[in-house]
Amino acid sequence: MSHPYEELLAGEAHLRASPMTPHELLCNRLHAWVRAALPANSALELLPRRSPVELRADLRPCPDLALVHVPDGRLYLAAEVLQPGDHHRDTVLKKQLYMECKIPRLWIVDSRYHNVEVYGTGDLGFRLESILASQDPLTETVLPGFTHPMAELFAPPCP
Fold first, then answer.
1. 43: DSSP letter
2. pLDDT, tens only, 50-59
3. Distance between CA atoms of 40 and 107, rounded to whole angstroms?
């Protein structure tokens, strides 16, 4: 069961409601896939969902999925799974803050449209690398063998 949690975004505390079941299903799938693809002795570690990650003194987001560098805990990849009412906070505010902190990778998972926006860091900040939908595969270069079609991510739960 999920619980409410608090994030610190640009010095402002944001109390977040308990995520709903569809949101948690997506988080479960992403975490299972990333965990299975992480090589032994990886330089990256998958944190438990919504673990606080301190990026600056005034910025402690709780991404739905976070891969951090093992030696120093720097955030490498954040995934934000959208749910009703949180669209602006996750797609505008947090994306801007992640960009300012030069986070290398960001996935924004949108269950309304069954797509994933994949961002990488470029010379001028984030660049949208792809919008994945339908049978497009979600891949990640640091995760060998990690390839999952969007239809698999957004499939209804098994009865």
1. S
2. 999 999 999 9
3. 23
